[in-house]
Amino acid sequence: MKNVPIQLVLIAVVLLTAVRLLRARGARPQAVRRLGLMVFAAFAVWSILFPQVWNQIARFVGVGRGTDMVLYALVVAFLSFTLTTYLRFRDLEHRYTTLARRLALDEAGPPQPRVAVPEQEQPYAGS
Predict the structure, then answer these.
(1) pTM of the entire structure?
(2) Spatial CB neighbours of 46, under 8 Å, sequence gap ≥ 6
């Protein structure tokens, strides 16, 4: 029961991250993601130099060990990466589909008038 508050916080962070990434479009969210990546990289370097920081953070939020805290953080980071990659590919597929349709219409040219083709005489099979 001791881990319930941190579990609720982690679930909330995961859900909020998912909602935020699914809704975010444009330059501002991309800048926020890049800034988040820079903060994550700086914190990663800091935690490599001072590994005991994870134990302190874990104790502060109510998680047993620093390694568990690292795992939780990596799950959230992986979820963010997965969602942004999915959204990027979905957007690219939409753009490629639009481009392919546009090219097909451009290369098709104007419609050609229909030319009447005389029917070929079929032999009468009745006699």
Answers:
(1) 0.54
(2) 53
126 burial via Cβ count (<10 Å: 0-12, 13-18, 19+): exposed
- Count of other CB atoms within 10 angstroms of residue 30: 12
Distances (CA, A) of 9 to 6, 39, 76: 5, 20, 12
Burial 56-69 (b: 16+ CB within 10 A, else e): eebeeeebeebeeb
Reported confidence tier of residue 35, pLDDT bands at 50, 70, 90: confident
Instruction: Specify the DSSP class assigned to residue 62.
Output: T
The residue count of the chain comes to: 127
d(CA 88, CA 26): 11
